[in-house]
Amino acid sequence: MVRRIVGLRDDRPVYSDILGHLVEATETHLTVRARDGAIRVPTAEIYRAKTIPDRRRFTPTEALEVAAAAGWPARERGQLGDWLLRATDGWTMRGNSALPVGDPDLPLSEAVDEVTRWYQDRGLPPAMSVPLPLFQRIDAELERRGWTPMPLTLLMTARLADLAAQEDPRVTLDAAPSPEWLTAVAGRKGPLPASAIDVLTGVPQVRFATLRDEGDALLATGRGCVADPDGRWLGLALIGTEERARRQGLARRVIAALVAWGVAAGATDAYLQVEQRNVGAVALYERLGFTTHHVYLTRYLPA
After folding, report:
1. Predicted structure pTM score
2. Three-state DSSP class for residue 235
3. Burial 173-197 (b: 16+ CB within 10 A, else e)
């Protein structure tokens, strides 16, 4: 950043700031490449010049969203500045929507155009999962363009120390999902494409929880992973109970086993994502000690 003296007013200097990349420095001038092009500034006109960081530090909301994205790795990923572009053959909206955090390095309108092209080139409906209220401006732009909203999603968090519970020896944790585990999840989430396995197993530290009855019939499942670079977050997903076994506290037992594993892996906090309209699941997580950190709204562009 260069602060330049551009004149005098009441015998006091008037300044103008230039933000850009330094491309030349001589004894007589600096040349800065700004958004509107290269600007040559004589050294006699320079009041102050300083280096500023290329990127601002992410807010807690942005950092958590990035951690959650790492725990659900899309099969194909791209970048638009800081924005993350994700595609996974249409399986799950988390794996097939742009995550607008940080700066896309483009004006908002142009950035949305780029996102649209990226998904259309892959035969997918353009979609974005927008953290709110932090990026209300982005959501307003998508609404103006006619992008359709989906149900609001809560991103809930809790300290692992507050989630400790007695473990159930019937819960087993495996490093890879069994065919029966996948069948149970497909029964709740719909058919799993081959790329779903890439998402589920595409992190170094992951466990697949299974709870069976005395006759070895599968009753409940869950997935836990620690995927963020700092190793802080245990991500919980696909917590589900077979219909015949609901209202018996089995989901709580699956979570307890994954929490114990997460603590052993060095994590200190947990997150999960759940649709706000799933009132039963939200109530369960609140009873366990989870609170809503923030929400996000996914919008897609209709064909």
Report:
1. 0.80
2. strand
3. beeebeeebbebbeeeeeebeebbe
